[in-house]
C-alpha cells in the first residue's frame, strides 16, 4: 500500500485555480478550474480545458506521479503559474518557457508520505446549558462534527515541505492506500478521508539524525 495526501485547489479562490498557456509567443490562454478539486483531479481538469481550447493547437497532458507534477505538450509552449500555484506544485518560477515539458520538484500539496494512520471518526459536540429558577433550563448546541486524529509519517524534509505550505490550512484528502476509490465509511474502513484540519497537535522528529517526522493533526470530516 502506498499512502497519499493531497490538498484541494478551490475554484472560488484566485490563488490556486488558474494556469496560463501560450504557443508560439502568442497571448496567454487561461484555464480556470470549474470546481474545487484535489491536485490530481485539478491537473486532469486543466488538461481537458487546454485540449478543448479553441486558441491552442497542441495536445496537452498534465500529470502527477511519484510526487512530481509535469506539464507536457506535443510541442514547445510557455507555462504560467500564478499566485500560490508554483510553490504548491513544486515549481520555482511563475513563467516557464522554451520547452515541451516542465516538471517540478516534490509538490507539497501532493505527497506520498511514509505512512498515514487515523483513529475511527468520533462525534465532537459542544453544548452549553443555562439553568433558570424553577428548574427550567435551555441548551444551545454550538458545534457538531465527526472528528479524527491523523498521524502523517514522513521524512523530515517532506514534513517541512508540508508544514511550510498551506496544505494543512484547508481541506485535504488522506489515503492510507492511494488506490482507494471510495471514501471511508463504517463498511469501508480503508477508504480515503476528506478532512478539514483545525489544529496541528504535535510535530515530532525521530530516527537517525532526526531524519523522520510525525505530524499529528486534529481534523473534522467532510460532510459531518
Structural class call reads: mainly beta
Any idea what the radius of gyration is? 21 Å
Instruction: Quote the average pLDDT.
Output: 88
Number of strands: 14
β-sheet strand percentage: over 45%
The backbone outline, from C-alpha atoms, is globular
Helix residue percentage: 10-25%
Number of helices: 3
The largest β sheet comes out as: 9 strands, antiparallel
Detail the poorly predicted runs.
Answer: none
Q: Structurally, how many domains make up the residues? A: 2
Q: Distance between termini?
A: 27 Å
Q: What is the N-to-C succession of helices and strands?
A: EEEEHEEHEEEEEHEEE
Which descriptors apply to this entry?
3 helices, 224 residues, 14 strands, nine-stranded antiparallel sheet, mainly beta, five-stranded antiparallel sheet, globular
Q: Can you offer a commentary on this structure?
A:
The chain is mainly beta and about 220 residues long. The protein has two domains: about 10-110, no CATH class; about 115-220, no CATH class. About 10% of the residues lie in helices and about 50% in strands. The chain has helices spanning about 40-50, 85-90, 155-165; strands at about 5-10, 20, 30, 35-40, 60-65, 70-80, 95-105, 110, 115-120, 120-130, 135-155, 170-175, 195-205, 210-220. Strands 1, 4, 8, 9, 10, 11, 12, 13 and 14 form a nine-stranded antiparallel β-sheet that branches. It is globular, with a radius of gyration of 21 Å. It starts with a strand and ends with a strand. The mean pLDDT is about 90.
Amino acid at each position: 500500500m502506498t499512502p497519499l495526501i493531497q490538498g484541494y485547489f478551490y475554484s472560488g479562490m484566485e490563488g490556486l485555480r488558474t494556469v496560463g498557456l501560450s504557443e508560439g509567443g502568442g497571448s496567454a490562454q487561461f484555464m480556470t478550474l470549474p470546481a474545487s478539486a484535489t491536485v490530481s483531479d485539478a491537473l486532469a481538469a486543466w488538461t481537458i480545458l487546454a485540449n478543448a481550447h479553441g486558441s491552442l493547437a497542441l495536445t496537452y497532458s498534465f500529470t502527477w506521479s511519484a510526487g512530481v507534477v509535469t506539464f507536457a505538450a506535443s510541442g514547445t509552449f510557455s507555462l504560467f503559474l500564478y499566485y500560490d500555484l508554483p510553490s504548491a506544485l513544486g515549481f520555482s518560477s511563475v513563467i516557464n518557457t522554451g520547452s515541451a515539458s516542465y516538471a517540478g520538484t516534490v509538490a507539497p500539496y501532493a505527497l506520498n508520505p511514509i505512512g498515514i494512520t487515523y483513529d475511527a471518526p468520533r462525534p465532537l459536540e459542544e453544548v452549553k446549558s443555562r439553568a433558570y429558577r424553577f428548574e427550567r433550563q435551555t441548551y444551545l448546541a454550538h458545534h457538531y462534527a465527526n472528528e479524527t486524529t491523523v498521524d502523517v509519517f514522513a521524512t523530515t524534509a517532506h514534513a517541512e515541505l508540508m508544514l511550510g505550505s498551506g496544505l494543512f490550512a484547508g481541506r485535504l484528502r488522506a489515503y492510507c492506500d492511494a488506490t482507494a476509490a471510495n471514501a471511508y465509511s463504517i463498511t469501508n474502513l480503508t477508504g480515503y478521508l476528506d478532512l478539514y484540519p483545525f489544529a496541528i497537535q504535535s510535530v515530532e522528529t525521530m530516527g537517525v539524525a532526526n531524519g523522520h517526522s510525525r505530524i499529528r493533526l486534529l481534523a473534522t470530516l467532510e460532510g459531518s
